[in-house]
Amino acid sequence: MALALVSDMLREADKRHAGIVGFNTFNYEEVEWIIEAAEAEQVPAIIMLHPDMAYFSNISFEAHAQMTKALAERVSVPIGLHLDHCEDFNEIMHAIKAGFTSVMIDGSKLPFEENVAITRKVVDVAHAMGVCVEGELGRIGQAANREDFLNEDIYTKVEDAVAFVERTQVDSLAVAIGSAHGFYVETPHLALDRLKAINDAIDTPLVLHGGSGIPDDQITIAGQNGINKLNVGTEYGHLLYTNTRKIMEEGLSPREDWMWCMGALKPVMIEYLRRKLHALSY
Ligand SMILES: [Zn+2]
User: Fold this and answer.
1) pLDDT for residue 253
2) Does the annotation count 217 as an active-site position?
């Protein structure tokens, strides 16, 4: 089917007390495998592109959007296309023009009022163009720094979340509750009471970033307390890398290496994806 609007997908997930997994991607195979696994499991999925990944992998917003759109049309389950962590208004406009139907404006490094202002500016334009918007409040840092996920001072405050969603009209909100990006230097413990309080105070679907390495039981409880979207990048990327390396080390003829490797990788990745898509009990 045609690309689904992520805001509709998250509202539907919220009604089911479930959540959808968003995967950071950068090439054709990753996108294809996720969509194939979603169809096999008959659950929705969100394909995400981080602006840095677009830069490093040299894939344009246009190419990524067209490829995802074409692959989504092959299947019967809702597939969303989302621009992850973007801090720049013009870059977001570029992504919307390229065909992204959901964008994240990450103003979390800015003071509260400035975050509200830039987020509202993006929401006004995006909504006029039929595109939905994720905002971020609190700071979701790097899992390599203990301070970035253990310091409660940077967690999202309930009263700020209430004011932020009211003033910006975002479609979803990424909250800082003790998760972070990358490999965790120690097991995180999500601030589930804070999450519950935020969820009780606002209707907006909530997003959990840094989904790689959070124990499954915590993710399940987070899903029961308002998380409707779980972002996963590190875990998926690491699995892809380690398995590619393992397969390549077996040494094949140079001409066939890559094609053979992708064929050998696919079942491993699909098996992981089919399990992961149910992380939030969808
Ligand atoms: Zn993130």
Assistant:
1) 64
2) no
Give me ligand 1 centre to Cα 160, in Å.
19
Amino acid 56: pLDDT:
86
Q: Say what the alpha-carbon torsion angle 21, 51, 86, 106 is, to the nearest 10 degrees.
A: 60
Distance (Å) from CA 249 to ligand 1 centroid: 32
Catalytic residue among 14, 84, 148, 171: 84
Query: H or E element: which one contains 137?
Result: strand 132-137
CA of 257 to the centre of ligand 1 (A): 33
Q: What is the pLDDT of residue 144?
A: 92
| CA dihedral sign, ordered 86, 90, 93, 95 | negative
> How much distance in Å is there from the Cα of 280 to the middle of ligand 1?
17
- With a CB cutoff of 8 Å and minimum separation 6, the contacts of 170 are 119, 123, 133, 134, 135, 164, 204
Res 255: pLDDT: 65
Mean pLDDT split into 10-residue runs, the chain, 282 residues: 97 95 94 98 98 90 97 98 98 98 97 98 98 97 90 95 98 97 94 97 97 94 96 93 86 71 91 96 87
Q: Is the entire prediction scored with pTM above 0.85?
A: yes
Residues lying with their CB under 5 A of ligand 1, a single-atom ion = 209
H/E element, 121: helix 112-128
The β-bridge partners of 132 are 102
Structural domains in the chain, sorted by start:
6-276 (3.20.20.70)
